[in-house]
Amino acid sequence: MNLTFFITASIALTIQKYADKYREEDLSKTLADLESDRSLPRIKTYDFIIVGGGEAGCLLAGRLSEHFSVLLLESGGSPVPATYNPYLDLQVAAHPAINFMYPSVRQENFAGENGGFITVPTGRMLGGSGSHNAFVYNRGSPLDYDHFANLTGDESWSYREMLQHFKSFESFHGKLIHEEERAQYYGTTGPLFTETDWPPLVDGWLRSGEELGFQIGDSNGFLEDGFSPEVKLVKNGERVSSFTAFVKPFESTRTLLKVLRYSDVQTVLIDAHKRAYGVTYFRHGIPQIAHASKEVIISAGTFSSPLLLIRSGIGPREVLTKAGIPVTQDLAGVGQNFRNHPTIRLSFNIGRPDWTLFSLLGESQVEKELTLYQNGDERKGFFTEMDFSPQAFLVSKVAKSRGEITWPDIRIMLNQHPAMVGNEWTVTMGVVLTRPMSVGRIGFNVTEYLSSGGDSAAGDVKMAVVDHRQLSREEDIEAIMEGLRLGLKVMEDTSTFKAMNVRWRSEDSPVACAGLPLRSDAYWRCYIKQRGGLTHHFSGTCKMGRNSDPLAVVDSNLRVRGIQNLRVADASILPQPNDATIVAQVMVTAEKLARDLLRVHHRR
Questions:
Q1: Is residue 349 within 8 Å of residue 456, measured between CB atoms?
Q2: Which residue ranges run through the membrane (predicted)?
Q3: Quick count: other Cβ atoms within 10 Å of Cβ 132?
């Protein structure tokens, strides 16, 4: 019997059972809380209202509630037990009970094998997508933050200034390549526990990078380009997130922190002086009102934040007019500048596996390791490991042609867990374009809004018109082709992988590419269009910028343009995602804002 399959096959049902249980328990609590209200909203006032308990919202709630009263409104519930297991991130991310599943309109330049349609999940639970992602913690290049400082004219976004915020919430553990840089670049006393992921394969990966002439370094140090291990958000074999670090330990003891689950915010309340003073929301479908004496902060994410702004009368005038929503503030950029990282994967056969490098356990060993995971005081073993560990950050010729000589725009990853395909072991390599020029949009479905009577309970998934438009720019395709060729060189031309007789599985080519010369430009263009996919690094739909930028929705202090006491703090404000993974960038954005708010409003 295949024990791994036996265990993982039941995960979806287990997730659903716990999601249903948590919702029913919270509904009973809600009905008891609201019973004395006689079915009428009782307005309560807090210093701050935070809409969305994702990566940014949880950190903000935890930091601000140390000194001010905070209401945190989250559309979902608590993360189910499966979310804490590193091995199960893919099953968790695909489950509709704890995720919003956003379908796209038809795409022209990727996902061809799916007819051009793609559905992407975003976490609908406390911790947001940080409770279902792959645990990877990459700050990105220092040049990402210097770029933000240039775009906004605000030096506080430069890496030199942002480094203090990273160090203030990090508790960085594990092995470093440049140990002498630990004190300079890493925090060691913060609430967010991070650890270097260093399975045996990393050493072989780093040797391959050096063999090809690349430097090796730490992904969260001042790395320009090169090969590196990953850092992951994990402690004692379990997930760490902004929820586990900043909210969960204090929710039952901190009197200034109020967390309401299953609460869908309908609109931000804005008075005649264009000052935000509260929100309307549905708690388990029951209408409620809350006021904020200081500020309202929207942290609903790249998809939901622009939709909430539009429902509140903030957005493109023509959209608001068509929807019959009174125009409070005409901001053309709401929902525009939708950005992400496109990705391509290649599979390779391993003719002579070196099991001293790859992480693999036989069935009897899986059973042994599973027992250790369940009963041991220290959680470790096969089911506590992540799929991706070795990585590389590289600068394409396309980026160099733009003068970005030391600013990586390609990320390559290698799966550390081989799989059996037929009678052969295979591994998967992913190539990610981290600074694409292609830009999409999140539109507002006016027809759906009008047919629902303006009721947000109809759901953001129905209200969103998602058009990724990835790989619509020629330079993006050129850069990905370069990344693919470099990845092939790592797998086919370096001693580590040549010794294992690694071979690209060209026989798995897309049907639409049959007849094209393998490895030719025409072949790779076809392959990219057919097999191109997306990461979960969505950003940009409420981007920050200067007042002169017609698409800027917030300023560099994350204040919504033209509206007082209203800010947006999540991935949607980032003009573009960083050159790695986005969770660290979102959390440092929230940490920066929390410090600013504590200073502006004079902490108690």
A1: no
A2: none
A3: 30
Q: How far is CA 264 from CA 72, 128, 190, 459, in A?
A: 11, 14, 31, 9
Dihedral (CA of 286, 287, 292, 295) sign: positive
How much is the average pLDDT of 522-529? 97
Q: Detail the residues annotated as belonging to a binding site for FAD.
A: 133-136, 265
For tokens 């092939």, the residue is 488
Residue 93 scores a pLDDT above 70: yes
Report how far Cα 398 is from the mean position of its chain's Cα atoms. 26
**For the segment 461-500, what is each residue's pLDDT rounded down to a tens digit?**
999 999 999 999 999 999 999 999 999 999 999 999 999 9
Q: Are 242 and 58 in contact (CB under 8 A)?
A: yes
Q: Count the neighbouring beta carbons within 10 Å of the beta carbon of residue 168.
A: 18
Per DSSP, 93 falls in state: H
Q: What is the pLDDT of residues 105-159, one digit of tens each?
A: 999 999 999 999 999 999 999 999 999 888 899 999 999 999 999 999 999 999 9
Tell me which residue has tokens 């913060």.
Answer: 190
C-alpha distances (whole Å) from 86 to each of 197, 206, 233, 236, 371 are 12, 23, 9, 11, 16
State the Cα–Cα distance between residues 422 and 415, nearest whole angstrom. Answer: 18
Q: What is the pLDDT of residue 366?
A: 56
Which domains does the chain show, CATH number per domain?
177-239+340-439+468-534 (3.30.560.10)
DSSP class of residue 61 equals H
**Is there a contact between 315 and 551 (Cβ–Cβ < 8 Å)?**
no
Alpha-carbon distances of 237 from 44, 197, 367, 392, rounded to whole Å: 40, 11, 17, 24
User: Could you tell me the pTM of the whole model?
Assistant: 0.95
Binding-site residue numbers are 133-136, 265
